[in-house]
Amino acid sequence: MVDALIVLIVLVLLFFALKGSAKHFRGEGSCCSGGSALLKTDEKRLDGPVVAVREVRISGMHCQNCAETVKRALDSIDGVSASVDFKRGAATVKEDRTIDDIELKNKIESAGYSVLSIIQR
User: Fold this and answer.
1) Where does residue 117 rank: exposed (0-12), middle (13-18), buried (19+ CB within 10 A)?
2) Taking every pair of C-alpha atoms in the chain, what is the biggest distance, in angstroms?
3) What angle do helix axes 101-110 and 64-75 make, rounded to 10 degrees?
């Protein structure tokens, strides 16, 4: 009887662990210190006309909270407005002035992610 109870408890715990893992890998989990109340940031408005658009390939993003973290980091640069898609592993960066690749790379890496490439579009 005790063995059956232990097996039942293990099965229930396994069910919840698998359910949480599935949500995480679909990007619906509350990982990365985001909690369930994800605060999406609005698109940043640039002061001037867009003079350049670049795509930055990023590794290490697992969920929408990760994407929002990268977006906030990039948007903190004067002259940059970013949109980030964790599923594609990429950020689209609009600029109203010339921004150095190294500055973009440093901001993303300081947020805890890796830059794979930066491509002018």
Assistant:
1) exposed
2) 73
3) 130
What gap in Å lies between CA 14 and CA 22, rounded to an integer? Answer: 12
Residue of 81, 46, 39 whose CA lies nearest to 64: 39
Rounded Cα distance, 115 and 120, in Å: 14
Q: What is the mean pLDDT of residues 55-70?
A: 92
pLDDT > 90 in the chain, percent: 57
Choice between 59 and 27, residue whose per-residue pLDDT is larger = 59
**Which of these ranges, 1-10, 14-23, 62-71, has the smallest mean pLDDT?**
14-23
Distance CA 77, CA 95 (A): 10
Q: Fill in the amino acid letter for 28.
A: E
Is pTM beyond 0.85? Reply is: no
